[in-house]
Amino acid sequence: MPDYKTVEDVIGATPLVRLQRLAGEEAARHGNVILAKLEGNNPAGSVKDRPAISMIRRAEERGDIRPGDTLIEATSGNTGIALAMAAAVRGYRMVLIMPEDLSIERAQTMKAFGAELILTPKAGGMEYARDLAEQMQRDGKGRVLDQFANLDNPRIHYETTGPEIWNDTQGRVTHFVSAMGTTGTITGTSQYLKEMNPQVRIVGAQPSEGSRIPGIRKWPEAYLPKIYDPTQVDEMLLVSQADAEDMARRLAREEGLFAGISAAGACWAALQVSARVENATIVFIVCDRGDRYLSTGVFPA
């Protein structure tokens, strides 16, 4: 009988594709290649599929949780969707806490996977959502996996995302660019790439002052993710909301890549890097798909 794969088995191994029109003639003249890693190809549609299944599997292995338990997580969207999918696959009740102003598509997708949603005030942001999740755990209402402090988050990127980029570029990668939210992707991937070649430059994309970009955060000191290792990031570029949204539209129209706004922010940062280097292989993470943002008005109706 054929050895059929499960949903879990097809998480990861996402493709790298070369930007053609956005990179422009200048990148070609300087010998630069800009590559997009299409994490929207994961089963639940984002890079967060990797840590979601990693956190649940490893918590099971440690005996921290077992099927039938209630899991709680504060999320801006993609981790919640991924956890809802993983909980459905492995038999958990999933309670997700998210600010009320995030896109309706994300909320609907979480519910489609069977998750229960608690919406928190927009003014409180993700900080309030995280505080509420911790309070619910203290009240005995479930177990918080805590993507912000759980080492199984960056660990899966060290084990999978980093090696995939290294192998698919045949070790030629010179720069890795990622939006910074929970920081699991950039921390784990950086650790692997720098072990393979300490000269690889790691660039994080963060929102500029006053910008609100789903999936990219600049955390107050008290809420800085515990998994974040600043020694793994060489440079941070500030991306404006306007530039990220414009790049999302351009990615779709000029490259045929229908990507989310944080992915577009990472693309914008990758192009900034390309403008000042030569003979570089620049990889950026396309962390999700654009259909999660249709109700936001970023894409023309």
Automatic annotation (TrEMBL):
<dbReference type="GO" id="GO:0006535">
    <property type="term" value="P:cysteine biosynthetic process from serine"/>
</dbReference>
<dbReference type="InterPro" id="IPR001216">
    <property type="entry name" value="P-phosphate_BS"/>
</dbReference>
<dbReference type="Pfam" id="PF00291">
    <property type="entry name" value="PALP"/>
</dbReference>
<protein>
    <recommendedName>
        <fullName>Cysteine synthase</fullName>
        <ecNumber>2.5.1.47</ecNumber>
    </recommendedName>
</protein>
<keyword id="KW-0663">Pyridoxal phosphate</keyword>
<dbReference type="GO" id="GO:0004124">
    <property type="term" value="F:cysteine synthase activity"/>
</dbReference>
<dbReference type="InterPro" id="IPR001926">
    <property type="entry name" value="TrpB-like_PALP"/>
</dbReference>
<feature type="domain" description="Tryptophan synthase beta chain-like PALP">
    <location>
        <begin position="8"/>
        <end position="288"/>
    </location>
</feature>
<keyword id="KW-0198">Cysteine biosynthesis</keyword>
<keyword id="KW-0028">Amino-acid biosynthesis</keyword>
<keyword id="KW-0808">Transferase</keyword>
<comment type="pathway">
    <text>Amino-acid biosynthesis; L-cysteine biosynthesis; L-cysteine from L-serine: step 2/2.</text>
</comment>
<dbReference type="InterPro" id="IPR005858">
    <property type="entry name" value="CysM"/>
</dbReference>
<feature type="modified residue" description="N6-(pyridoxal phosphate)lysine">
    <location>
        <position position="48"/>
    </location>
</feature>
<feature type="binding site">
    <location>
        <begin position="181"/>
        <end position="185"/>
    </location>
    <ligand>
        <name>pyridoxal 5'-phosphate</name>
    </ligand>
</feature>
<dbReference type="InterPro" id="IPR050214">
    <property type="entry name" value="Cys_Synth/Cystath_Beta-Synth"/>
</dbReference>
<comment type="similarity">
    <text>Belongs to the cysteine synthase/cystathionine beta-synthase family.</text>
</comment>
<feature type="binding site">
    <location>
        <position position="78"/>
    </location>
    <ligand>
        <name>pyridoxal 5'-phosphate</name>
    </ligand>
</feature>
<feature type="binding site">
    <location>
        <position position="262"/>
    </location>
    <ligand>
        <name>pyridoxal 5'-phosphate</name>
    </ligand>
</feature>
<dbReference type="InterPro" id="IPR005856">
    <property type="entry name" value="Cys_synth"/>
</dbReference>
<dbReference type="InterPro" id="IPR036052">
    <property type="entry name" value="TrpB-like_PALP_sf"/>
</dbReference>
